[in-house]
Amino acid sequence: MNNTQSSPFKPVSEMMVDNLETLKVLADPLRLQIVKLLAFTPCTVKQIAAQLKLPPTKLYYHIKQLEEQALIQVVDTRVISGIIEKQYRAAAMSFRVSRDLLSPDSPGGQENLNMVLMGIFEETRDDIQKSIQAGMIDLTTPEEPDSPTPHSLMLWRGGMNLTEAEATEFHRRLKALLDEFDNGDEFDKSKPSFGFLLAFYPSVSRHTPHEET
Hints:
The protein is α+β, with helices and mostly antiparallel strands. A hairpin with a 2-residue loop joins strand 3 and strand 4. Residues 1-5 have low confidence and may be disordered. It has helices spanning 20-26, 29-37, 45-52, 60-68, 99-102, 109-133, 164-181, and strands spanning 2-6, 12-17, 72-80, 83-90, 92-97. The longest helix has 25 residues, at 109-133. The protein is globular, with a radius of gyration of 21 Å. The protein has one domain (2-206): Winged helix-like DNA-binding domain superfamily/Winged helix DNA-binding domain (Arc Repressor Mutant, subunit A), CATH 1.10.10.10.
């Protein structure tokens, strides 16, 4: 084995997605999984394929798309038995989509929002299914709502009626809780990994109807 290039690289904390082409590439559920894998450690296509349980040939197109939009980049190139092997790393630890792309007033704003939501939901669904298949989530035993275990799956969609002040305070406390447990850019392999999907927003479907007179 012969190293021909070595370039230490650390992803930035956050990258703003502010153009449609980059958004289209990132919104794909499989590409979201690839970027997530590459956030904390560099990997080759073969290593990514092994973790996703997919053939490497299925990934080359997606890797090219991500690289062309600077969402990932090559951080090391090695020659093994005469074959060039590249290691990739995500450009950022997290990605934020510009609100200009999602605004109803912008061209294609509704379609862009649908694309982002579908990508997030599908990637989350796939992650949960794979975690269940791997035995990391236990669905075989009854669970007490007030006594979760490290293998619990919590799926909840509901709502609440709050004043504007209460909603602001709820948002503040929730953000503080996330910040308290956030590992930031550090990745501790000695700890299990957990995923979450959270949405907190004013809901038109729970808007109190006018009383009939």
